[in-house]
Amino acid sequence: MTSQRVGLWLVGARGSVATTAVCGLAALRAGLAPPTGCVTERLEGVSLPAWDDIVVGGHDLVSTPYEKRAEHLARAGLLPHHLLAPIVPALRDADAEVRDGYHPTTHRGPQELAVRRLAADLETFRFKHDLARVVVVNVASTEPPVPVVPEFASLESLRAALADPARAVLPASSVAACAALLAGCSYVDFTPSTGVALPALDELALAQRVPYAGRDGKTGETLLRTVLAPMFTDRALKVLSWSGTNLLGGGDGATLSDPARAASKLRSKSDGLASLLGGPVTAPLHIDNVPDLGEQKIAWDHVSFEGFLGARMSLQFTWTGLDSALAAPLVLDLARLMAAAHAAGIAGVVPELGFFFKDPLGWDEHRFDRQSAELVSWARSLDGRR
Amino acid sequence: MTSQRVGLWLVGARGSVATTAVCGLAALRAGLAPPTGCVTERLEGVSLPAWDDIVVGGHDLVSTPYEKRAEHLARAGLLPHHLLAPIVPALRDADAEVRDGYHPTTHRGPQELAVRRLAADLETFRFKHDLARVVVVNVASTEPPVPVVPEFASLESLRAALADPARAVLPASSVAACAALLAGCSYVDFTPSTGVALPALDELALAQRVPYAGRDGKTGETLLRTVLAPMFTDRALKVLSWSGTNLLGGGDGATLSDPARAASKLRSKSDGLASLLGGPVTAPLHIDNVPDLGEQKIAWDHVSFEGFLGARMSLQFTWTGLDSALAAPLVLDLARLMAAAHAAGIAGVVPELGFFFKDPLGWDEHRFDRQSAELVSWARSLDGRR
Amino acid sequence: MTSQRVGLWLVGARGSVATTAVCGLAALRAGLAPPTGCVTERLEGVSLPAWDDIVVGGHDLVSTPYEKRAEHLARAGLLPHHLLAPIVPALRDADAEVRDGYHPTTHRGPQELAVRRLAADLETFRFKHDLARVVVVNVASTEPPVPVVPEFASLESLRAALADPARAVLPASSVAACAALLAGCSYVDFTPSTGVALPALDELALAQRVPYAGRDGKTGETLLRTVLAPMFTDRALKVLSWSGTNLLGGGDGATLSDPARAASKLRSKSDGLASLLGGPVTAPLHIDNVPDLGEQKIAWDHVSFEGFLGARMSLQFTWTGLDSALAAPLVLDLARLMAAAHAAGIAGVVPELGFFFKDPLGWDEHRFDRQSAELVSWARSLDGRR
Amino acid sequence: MTSQRVGLWLVGARGSVATTAVCGLAALRAGLAPPTGCVTERLEGVSLPAWDDIVVGGHDLVSTPYEKRAEHLARAGLLPHHLLAPIVPALRDADAEVRDGYHPTTHRGPQELAVRRLAADLETFRFKHDLARVVVVNVASTEPPVPVVPEFASLESLRAALADPARAVLPASSVAACAALLAGCSYVDFTPSTGVALPALDELALAQRVPYAGRDGKTGETLLRTVLAPMFTDRALKVLSWSGTNLLGGGDGATLSDPARAASKLRSKSDGLASLLGGPVTAPLHIDNVPDLGEQKIAWDHVSFEGFLGARMSLQFTWTGLDSALAAPLVLDLARLMAAAHAAGIAGVVPELGFFFKDPLGWDEHRFDRQSAELVSWARSLDGRR
Ligand SMILES: NC(=O)c1ccc[n+]([C@@H]2O[C@H](COP(=O)([O-])OP(=O)(O)OC[C@H]3O[C@@H](n4cnc5c(N)ncnc54)[C@H](O)[C@@H]3O)[C@@H](O)[C@H]2O)c1
Ligand SMILES: NC(=O)c1ccc[n+]([C@@H]2O[C@H](COP(=O)([O-])OP(=O)(O)OC[C@H]3O[C@@H](n4cnc5c(N)ncnc54)[C@H](O)[C@@H]3O)[C@@H](O)[C@H]2O)c1
Ligand SMILES: NC(=O)c1ccc[n+]([C@@H]2O[C@H](COP(=O)([O-])OP(=O)(O)OC[C@H]3O[C@@H](n4cnc5c(N)ncnc54)[C@H](O)[C@@H]3O)[C@@H](O)[C@H]2O)c1
Ligand SMILES: NC(=O)c1ccc[n+]([C@@H]2O[C@H](COP(=O)([O-])OP(=O)(O)OC[C@H]3O[C@@H](n4cnc5c(N)ncnc54)[C@H](O)[C@@H]3O)[C@@H](O)[C@H]2O)c1
Ligand code: NA
Ligand code: NA
């Protein structure tokens, strides 16, 4: 496996997370930056693709060149200014591998055509670079929640709907997921969008013998919640309320200022809390778009809890994160791990990757420590499976 | 085991932690309060003494009756006002079991005499109440650090020094520990004082076949640090500095306003951080006496860390705890667990109780999640040993 | 003036703010508590009614006796437990002076009748206690915003509408205000409800020669904003965003969990910010109902600002207030000051009381320091006017 | 006045504050940055030197060129990267005007010689650039507190001590101040060092007919304290404790990690609090050197206060400032205002500039609002005096 090249295909390839991943990979390969934030670097004794063996490409709807995006990231504190010049050649290479993504507004004809076009892009990419396999990671803008329709229940019924030129049954994220699976690529949902999380697509993944994982990268407030909540339960302290406010700027802030889209995010953020605390608590939660924060995200949480004899106490924290700096190394980690899982013959959902996600598919375990231990032992077992 | 009565002997019996434990035990036995904060209640399938089977007594230097101390706790938010009346009889019982502690200033003669007097108090208590065993827990005021002298190295050399009327070789906490072991009682150090942590006393514990554990109850800032630090390492994020300020009032605040005594505490608080983070970081730490806070403790921590491509981020938290409400249920837990360990024939240091302590004796593991898992599996193994 | 007795009539007489004011006045009169939080105590050289000269009464819709309400306040940290017993007689006196308030659901007939009934209660109260004058303060639950109708524009048109049995043109707060003015009482709006803030009622106040003031007591987040915002402008620093979250329990928390009612509050809270900062800024603001907080209110604000050469900085604060402990002394202050203003012959809106309010009627000045200076000089001028 | 050129002479010319001022002035003159943070821009109707009329020079002990210092500031977030190139010529001009400062270790001979050398540098600078007057601003590293000796009491006794080659009676800051006054330049102390604050130097300032002001620029925690404390007093709330921790990196952080030097700072920071609150309160205060913060300063303050009926409440804030971005525009403001004061014939201490300082010389008023009002009315009166 270590000698084989793999592809990392980013849906939302020109967004902040994707651009940070692309710039960071270039810097890692040039030895210009340490792999801070990459958890796979800590997995000793696990064979994973080397940084040099990863080729990037992707889909997006916009065409701003990476150089310009990288300058923006530098101003936002995501990329040291001195790295800009040395990575320019790598950014130009990446520019050459970005194709037009799917959008319902511009597409004509049955959705099946869109799926096939995206899948063809993936196959071309794999062929052109002689890649052993390709990992597709969705880092496109968060979509609004999608109503469940009967067509999602089986691959057969989905296929029929996709062929109907009068319908657009799948949201864009699921079109991307479907194309990935069809092209024999593994798929990761780093967003809270629907993506691969449909019975029909699970069926497809198993049929195609490709693994998938998700959902919604866990990088800020939720990360802390999954670390802190077990402390309260392990110490038998009773959480009474857990209130939160998130301030964010950037593209994600703008997207989430649309209440419909924020709904996806809020749901995936708060679902876990009840599970962590063993029952529901008062938990008001807000996401506010504060453009001046740029790529920064500030989360304030206030936890009110009760101790012995009803004593009232509280914990509050403020997290000031640069979201893409937290997300991008995880995207690279997921590329490595999914490539290895695929090589090891794993198909369908990979619950052991729950460590990375707010809303882990296939495993209802939100506790960070359990997820962390599981990730390590699963990764160590991969070699044996091959 | 469940049918046998055990003793809980508190050194510092009239302090805030001890009084909260005494009041709380009375309330638990009367069914007037739930066991919030008691981790042993969550240990399913482990046989431990019932609340009804625990009798309390202790040593202190002051004689304020429990009723008065309880009123103070109620004003401080540690005890609901409506619980005061129903527990008065239990408090009077407890008053009857408090004896004069040891203090170097008032003691005359060789320290050996002090040790014997304290041990005799323990034996009388055990006999009087027909107790299967007694657990001594040190919750007295924190002492200044003690210089290491050669006499600490072996039981033999310690014995000689104890017999010398011209010396006071042991600090009060170690006099108490020595007395406990001599009297065949298990011993727990809930403070950062020297206590049992001397080679000579370890020898004595093994000789007497009694278990001991410590040191310094982990209830606030350090608890959070041992929960949060693993998140940074598991996510490969680089902590650059971890600064902390603790504001506390109460008896503990007054004691720790003495820089010599604070030294013990600061050491036991910060020792763990380097171990948790895999190396030293800038970590200024303060303890301030702020009398108006009463029994409240407020800790503010600021963590500065680096992510991918050198991105700079931070986490800060403010913890507002009622220290004794966090400590007292753990003291009750430790009484139960040590009684069970003693019954199971365990002798010497019990590293598996590191979950409770800032400075765990016998195990250099500070990560909360590992400690928590270890505690559970150890407790479950106890029954089998008997 | 100092020898004359005055009445304080509370609309919402059994709410938290009102009960705290009633208990506090009893404690002040008995010399059992210092006047902390009463700004009139700092106004040297101004003749105001003595605490002994104030008699309380009011309207409410509920009938829970004050003793019970006081016990609740004690549990919530608003009243020391030891004060409960000594003030019982005063609380019983107060109970005897509470009358049924007006509510649209239970009222029958033209609103005019309701106004007359409430006014009659006021007159009876004034006569019974031989009061020189009565100050009516509205501390009832916040109402939803009310659409402006043409009838509000003049006293004449309002009168016609009030006589119409088929209409309920005024919200309850304005019915109370109208009754107060009709009965020759001064009126203060401590809530963001409509109350007296209608042209028709301004006309009535001038006709009746009584003063009025408002609106919405400034006790927490807004207080801080009006103190901090001038710092940024006086230092020529550019505020980019000012985000806020308020967590509150209690009756007020429950009321404001109704988005319609919260709208009034949010408007009166945020209106001032743009005025303070000389223009609009991004300012997301939330009010969350967190019942476990009881009477506590926790506000977190995050201010992002720019300095020289575009440097990005921030200020965040967390305010943990007991709202009624901040509001009640101001209600007593307002009773004294309005009585003095009335005695001095002032009629209509009193802009100089803006210091007390989030949404100061009659003066568009939100800066705390200017309001504070104005209050002092206005109060000092009162004696001269008489 | 507006047509005349003035000099700004920075003691500590290559430090962060000074370099930010030099870069910022260049950017202002080139129209590349708005004057955010410059309070003189808000003083309408006051004649002050234009940015184009200010020439900079200074003393320092190090010789790192400004271009290099500016690059450091850009990395630290104090200067936008795109400003670096356009200001290079101005930075080279400034480099040419920096002379060697005085340091006791390298100086030989009576201190008088040092004073004369520094004064000569100032005279040369004034002559070379044909300046109407020069304002000397001390922004050098903070010195440890200096014991008061009898020689400080009068100019005569100071002169004798300065002539004695066996003594070094004045700290470096006072040598600089003395030289400034001797050369007929006004002097501002932006640091907590002794500087001009000696009776002998006050005498000299009056004799030379030059104004002076100080001490210790108010830019962070203290600024907030002087804004917030009056809120508590104006609202009759009783502050019980005000605890603070300051985390800082940069040159200033390194200097203040020396407890002797921090002592100056802590004193000037805390002196004001008692004065603001009308008496002493518990007020633990720390300054920690946290190098990774770079030019950032983070201050956390916790205020515990009491309201009506003893209710306990708190306010905490976290200030994240870029100190030099706050200080530099004030240094430019002070240059303008002192030049105007000098032109208006003002001599000796200028108390009306207290607005700028933690430890205002000549006026024991720490309340921000009063200082702000006084500054404005004083500045407006200047034209009339000329
Ligand atoms: N820490 C994190 O940053 C983090 C954590 C969890 C989840 N996420 C999710 O990752 C996603 C990306 O975040 P971001 O900050 O990079 O956002 P962004 O707005 O900067 O980038 C999103 C990109 O997706 C593109 N896009 C939108 N619709 C598309 C489509 N149909 N096909 C292809 N491209 C499309 C956009 O043009 C844009 O370039 C978001 O959904 C966010 O919620 C991020
Ligand atoms: N969460 C917590 O409360 C917590 C956590 C960790 C450690 N601790 C430690 O627990 C101890 C007790 O804390 P507290 O808040 O109850 O303090 P406290 O000051 O209220 O009580 C200490 C008691 O010890 C008594 N004492 C002092 N010297 C003694 C001696 N030689 N023999 C017998 N009694 C003696 C004192 O008279 C006092 O009654 C402290 O050392 C504290 O550092 C507490
Ligand atoms: N610091 C503060 O507490 C503060 C600050 C500003 C404004 N306020 C406002 O003061 C008001 C009172 O706050 P609270 O915490 O005491 O609330 P609360 O819910 O405890 O009390 C409100 C009382 O008003 C009564 N009421 C409701 N409608 C009425 C009517 N039509 N006539 C007579 N009584 C009526 C209710 O029965 C209740 O007893 C609220 O509107 C609140 O927004 C409070
Ligand atoms: N907001 C603020 O930045 C702020 C606020 C108040 C006070 N201050 C004070 O301003 C001063 C400067 O702060 P900074 O951050 O620029 O510090 P810095 O360490 O970056 O710069 C200090 C400079 O002074 C020079 N210096 C030291 N001794 C000298 C001497 N005898 N003669 C000439 N130069 C000398 C040093 O070489 C250095 O270049 C400090 O004393 C600081 O306490 C700063
Ligand atoms: Na954990
Ligand atoms: Na002010």
Task: Point out poorly predicted stretches of chain A.
Answer: none
Radius of gyration of chain A: 21 Å
What about the largest sheet of chain A? 7 strands, parallel
Domain unit count of chain A:
2
Number of strands of chain A: 11
Strand content of chain A: 15-25%
Number of helices of chain A: 12
Q: What is the string of SSEs of chain A from the N terminus onward? A: EHEHHEHEHHEHEHEHHEEEHEH
Q: What is the average of the pLDDT values of chain A?
A: 94
Greatest interface: A-B, 52 and 52 residues
CATH uppermost class of the largest domain in chain A: Alpha Beta
CATH H-level superfamily of the largest domain in chain A: NAD(P)-binding Rossmann-like Domain
What is the percent of helical residues of chain A? 40-55%
Which second-level CATH architecture of the largest domain in chain A applies? 3-Layer(aba) Sandwich
What class, by secondary structure content of chain A? alpha/beta
CATH topology of the largest domain in chain A: Rossmann fold
Throw out a few tags for this protein.
seven-stranded parallel beta sheet, binds nicotinamide-adenine-dinucleotide, 12 helices, 11 strands, four-stranded mixed beta sheet, homotetramer, 386 residues, globular, 2 domains, Rossmann fold, Dihydrodipicolinate Reductase, domain 2, binds sodium ion, alpha/beta
